[in-house]
Structures are given as structure tokens and as C-alpha cells.
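Model it.
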Amino acid sequence: MPPGRSLDLVVLLVWLVTESLGAFMLRDWIVSGGAARAWRQPRKAEGMSLPVLAGHAGLNLTGLLVWIIFLLSGVKALAWVALGFMAPAIGLGISTVAIWTPYPGGRPKPDERPAMVPDAVIKRALEDDALAQRLVDELLERNLGQPSPRKVGWSLRPLIPAGHGALAIVTFLLATLAAIAAA
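Modeled.
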């Protein structure tokens, strides 16, 4: 390898780590049934969009392949082409953050949501102390009698998408510097 190409290799290494975190999140999404839900209900307002996710992954993988070809061939224009694929991939990735928060879709499913007390019953309970006491007792019994859906302790899972995003930005900045240095 010619001297002065170490930054190019650092970009490749950081890019591969970023891709591996993305692949891990994609695997979790597929295993948890997210892909099947998105396939069955493509126009649903909530949930991951398959075209956005495919565009994000496809553009980024294409950019990575172009970067590898740049490393092997030394054609300087390919570094800029790789950046051209990476920029919209990052944009699509940012658009998934709002959809995929909290990772990996920690929202309760419709059948797991707690039963709601109708407004008419609440209004009556505000006027009747005995009914209010009974509703509070039932609520406490129902909620305290069930195990907590959250596990106690620390979880590093939220760091995965944060690390993926931060590494994507670092990759883009380092690749830009490497492309400028190659020119």
C-alpha cells in the first residue's frame, strides 16, 4: 500500500464497524417481527418503512463497495463517488431515528395496553367517594399484582443506534478528509 493511505484504511475500518451495528439492528428488527409487520401493513403510519430502510442500507453498502474499489484501484474520483452514496444514506438513516425510537420498538402492542376506564365512569367516580375508592383499589390490585414489564438493571441496547449514528457521522467526516487528501 502506498504511503499516506492509512486514513483510507481507518475509514474502511470505521465504516465496517458502523455497518456491523446497522446489521445487528436490522437482525433484531427482523427477528422481532418488524419486517413481517411492515410487509403486511406498508402504509401504516407507525413503524419502519421498508423503502426507507432498503434505501438507507442499499446506498450505504454501495458506498462501502465503491470505497473498497477506491482502496484497491487508487482512483481518486471513487472516493468522492463513495461519499456521494454515503450522504443520502445518512439522511435516510436520520429519518429512521424518529420512527425507531425507542429502539427496537419498545412501544406496547395494542393487545398489551392497559384497559382504559371510560370517561363516564370517571365522572361518576369524581362524584361518588365509594366508587372512586373501588376504582383506585382495582387499579392498584391490577397493576401491583402483575410483574413489571421492564427488567431491572442497566441496558446498553439504546447505545447501539446512538453508536451507529455517531460512527456514521465520523465515517463521513473521515472519508471527506481522506478524499480531500487523495486529490
